[in-house]
Amino acid sequence: MHWDLLIRGARVFDGTGGPGRMLDIAVADGRVAAEGIDLPAEAAREVHDARGCWLVPGLLDIHTHEDLEVELEPGLPEVVRHGTTTVVAGNCSIGLAFGNQRRDGQDPIVDCFARVENIPKPVLAKAADRATWRTTGAYLEHLDGLPLGANITPLLPHSMLRIEVMGLEDSVSRDPTEDERRAMVALLERAMEEGYPGFSTDSLPLHFLAARAHLGKRIPTQYARFDEYRALTDVVRRHDRVWQMTPATDDAALTLKLMFLTSGRLYGRPLKVTALAALDTVNNRATRRRATGLAKLLNTRLVDGRFRMQALAAPFRIWSEGAVSPLAEGDPLMRRLIETELEDREARRRILEDPEYVEAFREMWARGKSGFGVARLQRLLRLEDAFLTRDLADMIVYRSPVPGWEGHSLATVYARYLAWRGPGGAAADADEQLAFEALGRGLRDDGEFFLALLRHFDRDLYWHYVQANRDPAVIKRLLLEPALLPGFNDSGAHVTNMAFYDGNLRALALALAESEAVFSRMVGRLTREPAEFFGLDAGRIDVGSRADIVLLNPQSLEAYDGEANVRYQYRPAFECHQLVNRSDGVVAGVWVGGRQLWDGAGFTAGFGRDRAGRALRVA
Hints:
The protein is of the alpha/beta class. It folds into 2 domains: 59-315 and 469-598, Alpha-Beta Barrel (TIM Barrel), CATH 3.20.20; 319-466, no CATH class. It is 35% helix and 18% strand. The strands form 5 sheets. Strands 1, 2, 3, 4, 5, 18, 21 and 22 form an 8-stranded mixed sheet that branches. A 6-stranded parallel sheet has the order 9-10-11-12-13-17, sandwiched between helices. Strand 12 (272-278), helix 12 and strand 13 (306-311) form a beta-alpha-beta unit. Helix 3 (108-116) runs antiparallel to helix 4, helix 8 (178-194) runs parallel beside helix 9 (226-238) and helix 22 packs parallel to helix 23 (528-534). It is globular.
């Protein structure tokens, strides 16, 4: 008996893009030991009958913030149950590589993550309490000691690097000295030598600090100048690692200058870059074309880049608790509400009752919706740069103190309000009557109506809208575009605003709906291709490779509807509610390092207590 496990009778898609083959897979010592037809069952300690299932390499999620969740629930159950076996953490310039960095009364993990990733401060504080290491090497050793479910590999985050060298206050108020810049380069160099797969920065104008002294400040990475980015990415380039970046959507010149750092023609050697994000946005139809066109250009022989824009495998549905959602940070008026403490309902009420604020909001809300001018033309042509929808018809009520509104658009609710206010009007029920009476009869337009809802219900009005990726055919084209990589799931972040833990399954379902050949190609896009790009020992089913294996039920996968399987539930590890996904019946089995973690109906014994995953390093 020389194998630990024999998986028999599955149709195997190995991530190369070729057709599936009926194969048996044998596992020993956490690695694939043999593959073939009719391998002897007597040679294995355990035999798993996988007839009717499709077997694929463990899936990769390249854009997560699981560095927080792994401290509180290291099995990463919301990742594993959907067939993801390797996650890349430390994205968007924030992470735990230097521990909690609590110095001089500052709490950087709480201050950086709270608004950027919309995670409640008590959850962040719990994770920060456990982050007692001080160096990048000690962080990897800490991860090695956790009972990991999925594998995890952290990028070195730029904001935390600046804080480590400069302190939080100075990192957002002045340029680094030459000695400080050299110190950042040295720390990044050491992290690359320790096996970190890359480095992350961020330029998105939505990401602000949560500390009261810095509410108007963006996170530290956004105060770097080009020469700092150049010095740090030169380290990444030399080690052939990955730079994860986001564009400065409010500064096109800087964005282009940064993106062209990928160029081997300009800088002597190509730099691997993965950037957010190729989305088919509702407000601006040009966004997708700009993203894909630029990605293709950067990968031409002329530029000689290794550039991959990330693509999301789902409608980009954003959930909002009253005014609190990540994209609302893009509007200064909405931002004033978000800057308040999450539980400070009265502070938001005072803002919403300010007559000057109300008039400014009404003006913003109505911009471009009537009359003549550039704003009107941009709206008609779907070329607006706004992140937030200003159309009540897009905004669907998920949870409300008025149960009759749930599942309806706010445009429908507004129409009911207008009818109630008119001659002989009546509310649909007692709850609606009370709500309309509280709003009052004097609201002048739909913008003021929306503000009145926020003032009366605050976070109890939980609604959602699709900001991008409404067309499944367009999503599939983006996922299969060679200049892009599937990703941008943001797993582990935006706990009440997004639910894309099942992003990889959504991508596979879209592909399978077209053909088995496209499915096989998509498997490669989610396994071998990202693993090779990041330099990780993952994403393969070859003799000698890590035995990270997923069994799928093809019939259930083909019928899977991710939009219908979002759940809002309490996470005991977080001590708060979270949006999650449920794909039960689709994933028939998950093995990480040869250890089974999911059996199709639930987690196996020892999950979350015994280590299966590893902190992956680049050799």
